[in-house]
Write a structure and sequence with these properties.
5 copies of one chain form a homopentamer. Chain A is of the alpha+beta class and 334 residues long. Chain A folds into 2 domains: 191 residues, Acetylcholine Binding Protein, Chain: A, CATH 2.70.170.10; 119 residues, Up-down Bundle (Methane Monooxygenase Hydroxylase, Chain G, domain 1). Chain A contains 6 helices and 10 strands. In chain A, the strands form 2 sheets. Chain A has a 6-stranded mixed β-sheet, with helices on one face. In chain A, a hairpin with a 4-residue loop joins strand 1 and strand 2. In chain A, helix 3 packs antiparallel against helix 4 and helix 4 runs antiparallel to helix 5. Chain A is rod-shaped. Chains in contact: A-B, A-C, B-D, C-E, D-E. The interface between C and E is large, with 69 and 64 residues.
C-alpha cells in the first residue's frame, strides 16, 4: 500500500513537468550584453558575456507566492524546475559548444508572472566577410530559439537589447555602428517529422561594428609601402648583379608578409585587400627582375636598351599609384 | 515492514530500466548538420554541430500520454529515463572525446512512438588522404552504433541526413560535392565474449567535400613559382661568387617553405603535391649550384665549358615545365 | 494520506529557500588575495587566486547551534543551503567564464552570525592602457555584486582587502603601488523591468601595480637602439650599392621588430611607446635611403651634392636624440 | 519508529557497497584499442581510444536475473553500483589526468557472471628514448591496477588485447611491430602502511611501433644534406671576403635548423641522431671558417699556404662521409 | 506526524556532518609522488601526479566494522562522508586551479582508524629563480593545509614523502638532489575574524632538483659561442664595407637569439646567465662596428690608425675570455 503511494507521489512529481500547453506562451526577452570580446578572425568567432532575461505569464497558480515576488537562485531554481515549474529550454543556434551560466534565477510574482534570468558566456560564430580587411565591418549575431516548443506553443513577444556603455571605447579595436537590433522571426525545420515542417519562433540580435584599421596601418601597410617604395631604388643601382640581389632581397621580404597575413585570417577562398597589396608587391618586384634580366640579355646580344631602366623610375611608381587607386576605388565601390 | 516496502519500491524503479527485449527495436534516425567547422588538417579532425533525432515504437504503454504527445526537456527527460523509459545509449565510433549535448528531449505520443532528440557537438576524426593537397577532396564521416544492444535487439531503420543550407557558401574553404549519404550496415566485434562475434547495427553518414585551392594558389604556389623563375636569373649573372651567393639565397628561401608546409599538414609518411613542388624547387637550385661549380672547376683546369651556362637558360625552364606537367598529370591519373 | 504528507514535507523544504526578506541584510566582506598571476597583455586578462569571506546576521534561529560555532564544509555546506539556509549568490562582474571554488565552508555561530567562505580562482579582465608600454602601470580590478538581491535587500557593509606578503617580490614583473583598495558603491541596471531601475550594491577591489621595464630594456630597447646607431654607419660607407644594401638590411631588421611587438600586445587602435620607437626606427632608415638615392640622382645629373652625406652623420643622431627626448617628454607629460 | 526504519533502510543501502571479500575475485580483462593518436614527442604522451571489458563471478545472487542476461547502461549502471553491486575501481597508472568514459555498461547473467564494459579515452605517458630519432621505435604502454583491492582480494586472470584493423595503415606515421602484448604482474607499494608492503595485481599492455622516417628524410635530412654539400663550394670561391660571407650565411642557416628541432622534441639531456647531424653541420662549417682565416693569416705574414684550400675540397667531403658512417654505425650498434 | 519524523530524520543526517570537535585530531600523512612533469619555466609551474594518504583515529564508533577493515571506493566513500563520517577537506596552498582526483577511498578499521586515500593530479606553482639558468636548480614545493579546521582542532602528525623510483632517470631533464622533505609547520591568517589570528597546521613537501644543462649547451651555448668566435674574423677582412656588412649580419644573428630566449623563460625583471651571454655577444659585435667606423673616420681625416684593427684580433678574444670567467665566477659566488 504505502509503497504504491510513495511511488505515485514520486511519479506525480514527474508528471508535473510537462504542463498541457493549451494556450500559446508569449515570452518577452531582454538581452543585456556586457562585453563582446575575443574576436577571433581566424576561427570567425567571438565571445559574448551577457544577461538573458525571459518572462511570461504562467496560468498555473501552484507556485505563486501569496503576495509580492519570490526569488529562487541557482540550485533552488533548479529544484523548482525539477518539481514542475515550466521553464522552457532555449538554445543559441549559432553557438559553438555550450553556454556557461555562472548564476541563474527564477522570480515568481503573485500575479503569475515568471521571470527566468541568467548570466551567460558563450562562443558564437558567424560568417565574416574579409574582402575589405582591414577596412571591414562585421555583424555580430546571436540567434536564439526555444529547443522544443514550436511557434504554436511558444512565441517570442517583445524583445529588448541593451549594450553596457563601455567606459573606454577609445581603447578597443571595434567601434559599434548604429543601434543593436533585436528581431523576432520564424524558422522552419523539416528534420523531426518526415513530411511536416516545424515552425519555431526565432530571436535574432545583431550588432554592427566597424574595425579601426590603425593597428594594420602602422604595423603592416606603412612598412610594406616603405619597402615597396625602397624597392624602386633598384633602378638607380649600377651593375646587373647588385640590381638582381637587391631585388631578390626585397622580394623575399614581401613574400615573408604572406606568411604574416596567414596568422591574421582564416584560409579564405578569396583574397583580402591586405593580401592584394602583398601580391601587388611581389608581382611588382618580380616585374622589376624581368626588366633587369631583359635589359641584360639585350645588352649581351649587342642591342642595348639601357634607356628602359631610367623610364622604369617613373613607370613603376605611376603603376603603383594607379593600382592603389583601383584597389581603394574597388573597395569604395563594393 | 515499511522499510522493506520502501526498499523494494526503490529497487523496482531500478528493475524497470532494463526491459526484457523480446522483440527487435527498429530505430529510425535523422541527422541534421548545422555546421562542419574547425577542419584541422594537422590532426585530421573536424567539428560537427548538428541535431540527432532517433525514434522507435515502445510496446510498453506505461509512459504513454492519454492523447497527443508529451514533451520532456533536459532534466525532465533524464528523470524519465532514470525512472525506466527505455532510451538506448548511442556512441559515435569515430569521435574524439565525448559529444556535448546542450539540450535533449524525449517526446512520447499516445500511439507509443518515442522520439529522442538532441543537439550535439563533437570532434570527429577520419583518415585523410593529402597526396593531392591542396587539390584534394575529403570525406567527412560520422559513424554511429548503439553502445550495448546488438543487432538482434536494435537495428537502424530508415536513416535521413540533412545539411542546413549554408547562407554564404562562397566564403568557405570547402565545397560540398554531391548529396550527403546515410548508410546502415553491420559491424562485427570479437572483444566481448571470447569465441563469439557480436553484431551491431551501424549508421554511417558521409559528406564529400572539395577543397577550394585559391588560398594556397595565391599565398603559396604563386610566390614559390615566381621565386623559382627568378632563380634562373643566376644563369645571366657574371662572376662565380655572385652566381653562388644568389643561388644560396634562393635555395635557403625555398627550404624555408619546407618549414611552412609543416604547419599546414601532419607528419605524413608520404609527400603531398605541394611538398613535391618545394622539393623540386630546392633540388633544381641545388642542380644549378652543381653546374656552376662544375663550370668553375673545368675553367680552372683550363678546359672551359662556359657554353654550359647559356644552355641552362633553356634547359632549366624546360625541365621545370616538364616536371610540372608530370606532377599535374600524375595528379590527374590518380 | 501519507503521500500528501511526504509531498508537502518535500515541498516545505523548497519553500524554505527564499526567506521573506523583510529587513536588509548587511554583508561584511573580506577578500584575501594569494596571487595575481598569468597577466596576459594580449587578452588584457589576469588570474586571481584568493579567499572570499562574507558574513551577516541571520535572524532566523533554525540553524544556529546551541553554543559555540558549527562548521559545514563543501557538500555539507551545499546540503545546508539546499535545505534552506539563506546564502546569497555573488557574481564577479568582470570575470571571464566562471570562478572555480576548490573548497567552500559555512560557519554558523550561536549568536546567529553566518560566515560563508570560499577559495576561488578566476580569470578577470579590465581595460588596460598600453600607451606608455613598457613603462606603464595597470590597475587590477575585481568587481562583485549579489546576483539577485537589490540594495534594499542586501547591502555590502565593511569591506577588507588583504594581499599575501609575497616572499620573493624581487623576482616578479609587477610591483604593487600603494595599498589595495576596497570600495562599496551602487550600480544601476535597467534590463530587468522595462521602466524601473534596479539598484545593486557593488564591491570594487582595485590593486595598482607598476610594470618593471627591465625585461623590455635588455631584450628590446637596447638591441633596437644599437641597431639604429649602427645604421648610421651607412653614411661612412663608400659606394651607392653598398650604402643601399646595408640600409635595406637594417630596415628589414627593424621591420621584423614590428612582428615581435605583435606577440606582446593586443591589436590596439593606438601606438604604444615601444611601437613608436620601432616606427621611428624604420622611418629614419627609410629617410636615409631617400637621402642616398637623392644624392645619387643629383650626382648623375652632374650637380653633385656629396656634401649632404657627411652632414647626415650629425643630423641623424641629433634628430634621433630629439625624437627620443620628445617621446620621453610626452610620456612624462601624460 | 518510522524514522529509525527509514534511516536504517538508507544505511543498509550503504552497507551493501562493501561486500565481505572472503574469496579472491579473479577478473578477466579484454582491452580493444580503436586508435592510438596524438603522439606528442615533445610531451612524450599519446592518446588512446578503446574499450575496456572486465568480468568476474559474483557469488552474491542478489542482482542476478532469473534467466538470460540483463544490461544496465550508463546511469542505470551507476544506480546499480550505488545500490550495492560490487564493481571495483580500476586506475591507469601511467595516465595523465582522468580517463573519459563516454558510455559504460554492466551486464549480469543468470549464472552470476558480471561484465563491466566502458569506452574510454585517455592521455597516457611513457618514457621515450629518442637517441635514434627519427629512426626510432617506441613502446606504447597502458598499465592498469585495481585502485583499492590488493592481490589477495582481486587478481587479474586472462588478459586479451585486440587492435582494430586500421583501414589505411599506409597513411599513418607509425607502423605496429609484432603483436601487442598483455601481461599480468604484481607491483608492491609501501606508502599505505608504514612497515608493510601492499601487493597489487597489475595488467600491462604494450604495443611496439616503428616510426616511418619518410617525413624527416624529405623535409629535414635531404635539405640539410644539400646545404652541407653546397657549403663546400666555398673552397672554389676566390677571395677571402666572399669565402667568409658565404660560410657565415651557410652557418647561420644550419644553426637555424637547431631551432627547428626544438619544436620536434622535448628538452632532452642527450642528443638525438638528427641533432648530431645538425651539430656536425655547423661544426664542419665553423672548421671551414677557421681554415679560411688561417690561410689568410699565413698569407699576410708572407708564408702562403694556399695549397690548403684545394685539399679541403677532398678532405671535407671525405670527413663528412666518415662521420655519417660512424653515426649510422653507432646507430646500428645500439 | 510522519512528515515531522521524516524531516527530522533527514535533518539529523545533516547534523551528523559536523562532529563536536572536543579533542584535537592528529592526522598522519603520507604523500607518494609518481611523477613531476610538465615543468613550465615560462609560467613557473609543474604538474604533480601522486597519492595522498591521510589517517586519524575517529572516536565516534558509528561507522566501525565489527572486525577487520571495510573499504569504500569513490561514490560509496562520498555517500559515507555525506552521511556523516568526518573527513576534513584539505587544500593545496600553491595549486593553480583544482586538483583532479581520479579515484578516492575511505578505509575504516575495527579499532577506529580512518584512512582517506586519493590519487591526485594538479598544477602547482612556486617562485623560481632563473638567475643561473641553465645551470640552476629549483625546489618543487607542495603546501597543504586543512581548509576549515584550525590547529587546535586538527594538527598534522607524522608526515612521510615517497618518490617512485624512476625507471629511466637518464632520459629526464631534471635530476633529484638529496632526499625529498616533508615538514609540518604552522601558518597564521588574519582574514577571517578581524582582530584574531587563525592558526593552521601546514604540511610542506619540498623536492630539490638540478637541471641538466646538456640541452642548452648543445643547442644554444655552443652555436652562440661559435658565432661569436667567427665574428672576430671581421678583423682579418679587408675593406670597410665588407667589414661592416659582415658585422651587421653577425649582430642581427645574435639579436635573433634574444627572441629565442623569450620562448624559454618568463618576462623576468632580471637577466639570466644565458641572456647575459647574448647581451655580451651583441655588445661585443657593436663595439667592433664602432672600432671599424672609428678607424675609417681617422683614415678619412688623414690620420690613419690602421694598427688598431690587428690589435683587436687579440683584444676581443681576451676580453671575451675575461667576461666569460667573470660570468662563471659570479655564478660560482652566488
Amino acid at each position: 500500500m504505502i509503497k504504491k503511494e510513495i511511488l505515485s507521489a514520486i511519479a506525480s512529481l514527474v508528471w508535473f513537468c510537462s504542463p498541457a500547453l493549451y494556450a500559446q506562451y508569449v515570452v518577452d526577452t531582454s538581452v543585456s550584453i556586457n562585453k563582446i570580446y575575443g574576436v577571433n578572425t581566424v576561427d570567425q568567432t567571438y565571445k559574448v558575456d551577457g544577461y538573458l532575461v525571459t518572462s511570461w505569464d504562467e496560468p498555473d497558480p501552484t507556485y505563486r507566492p501569496a503576495s509580492g515576488e519570490r526569488v529562487y537562485e541557482n540550485h533552488h531554481a533548479d529544484q523548482l524546475m525539477n518539481d514542475g515549474l515550466w521553464v522552457p529550454a532555449f538554445e543559441f543556434i549559432n553557438i559553438i559548444g555550450q553556454r556557461q551560466t555562472a548564476n541563474r534565477r527564477v522570480v515568481i510574482s503573485a500575479d503569475g508572472r515568471v521571470t527566468y534570468n541568467e548570466r551567460f558566456q558563450g562562443l558564437f560564430t558567424t560568417t565574416m566577410d574579409f574582402r575589405q580587411f582591414p577596412f571591414d565591418y562585421q555583424t555580430f549575431v546571436l540567434m536564439m530559439e526555444p529547443f522544443s516548443y514550436e511557434q504554436k506553443q511558444l512565441v517570442f513577444g517583445t524583445a529588448r537589447i541593451n549594450i553596457e556603455a563601455l567606459e573606454n571605447q577609445a581603447l578597443s579595436e571595434w567601434q559599434m555602428q548604429g543601434k543593436p537590433q533585436a528581431r523576432v522571426s520564424r524558422s522552419d525545420y523539416a528534420h523531426l517529422q518526415s513530411g511536416i515542417l516545424s515552425h519555431f519562433s526565432r530571436l535574432t540580435i545583431s550588432i554592427q561594428a566597424l574595425r579601426k584599421p590603425d593597428y594594420y596601418l602602422w604595423r603592416f601597410i606603412l612598412p610594406l609601402s616603405l619597402i615597396l617604395v625602397a624597392s624602386w631604388a633598384v633602378f638607380w643601382i649600377e651593375g646587373f648583379s647588385e640590381r638582381l640581389m637587391t631585388s631578390f632581397t626585397m622580394m623575399l621580404t614581401v613574400v615573408a608578409y604572406t606568411f604574416y597575413t596567414s596568422s591574421l585570417l582564416p584560409r579564405l577562398p578569396y583574397t583580402t585587400l591586405i593580401e592584394r597589396m602583398v601580391i601587388m608587391g611581389y608581382v611588382s618586384i618580380f616585374a622589376a627582375i624581368i626588366v633587369i634580366v631583359f635589359v641584360k640579355i639585350r645588352d649581351e646580344k649587342g642591342r642595348p636598351v639601357e634607356y628602359v631602366i631610367p623610364r622604369c623610375r617613373v613607370i613603376f611608381p605611376a603603376l603603383f599609384l594607379i593600382a592603389m587607386s583601383v584597389l581603394i576605388g574597388v573597395n569604395g565601390g563594393l
